[in-house]
Amino acid sequence: MPDAAAAAHAAAASAAIAALEGTEAALVVATGAAARACTLRALLRAGDHLLASDWLDAQARDFLAHELPAMGVAVTFVDPREARAWRRALTPTTRVVYAESPVRADGHPVDLRACRTLAQELGLAFVIDATAAPAPLARATALGADVVLHDARLLLLDDEACDAGLVCSTEAVVDEVAATAARWGAHATPTTVGAVTRSLGSFDARLSRRVANAARAATWLAAHAEATGAVRDIRHALDDLEVHAVAGHTIVTFALVDAARRDDVLVAAAETRATGGSRLSALDTEGRVRLDAGVEEAATLERWLSRSVA
After folding, report:
1. Which of 106, 197, 246, 266 could form a disulfide with 138 if both were Cys (CB 3.0 to 4.6 A apart)?
2. CA 263, CA 189: separation in Å to the nearest integer?
3. CATH label, 203-309, candidates 3.40.50.10490, 3.90.1150.10, 3.90.1300.10, 3.40.50.10730
4. What is the pLDDT of residues 91-148, one digit of tens each?
5. Distance of alpha carbon 58 from alpha carbon 2, whole angstroms
6. In this predicted model, what pLDDT tens digit does every residue of 59-81 receive, in sequence order?
């Protein structure tokens, strides 16, 4: 693809993403990890301090705990359930507040009011990874985010072989992140931009189906729990705090009463994988399972759950 055409495609994709998220500008980069790394590198310098929610994706936590300190950036993790902990952890060099909501692992929303107030009061950059509930399910800017990050591979892209990350913010921040991505070789290729552009066309429909299927799966699991007692602790409904303003979810988590059965359930799920992309994965070491809802027909989803979990 000629450079001019590639640039035009990238600009169109960025404009569409910014409109979706409600920001001035947006950027497509190579991966979700690249979106996080390039953004934080653009916002932070050696000697700075970052406040981060303790409820994070494992890869994000590892980057914050190890890579940022190696670059001279101090990091403090805060239990997001303790509103006053954010202010107690503040230092004179704090520049960025970082949170993930809803949490990727289990879809649980985080109450961000305390850290949002702190960031706005002190003029700190507030970065939210909103991968687990992208617009139109939620809009992180409504929660006060200055920068919104997404791992597009998880919900936006309809091509599992592709990967991409999104950064949504002001034009000034996006320009700086783009320069960092170019220096690090993390910029998006024309192939990646093309995949994002194509996926945007069907995104709303696919997301709506995923949300409906998650609700259907939660209902099936509840009935299965009542009939057999084989599963428990089904979590799908989000907290009703107004601040979350999440209109639906694609994640359901549950625990097997007989935790030793979990590996057998996961193997059965993989062997009979539904064509619409729903999948089961281990959530922790306590026998809990995460279901990511796909886009298959409801009857197909229920047959797959019956073969996998029953």
Report:
1. 246
2. 38
3. 3.90.1150.10
4. 999 999 999 988 888 888 888 889 999 999 999 999 999 999 888 888 888 888 999 9
5. 38
6. 999 999 999 999 999 999 999 98
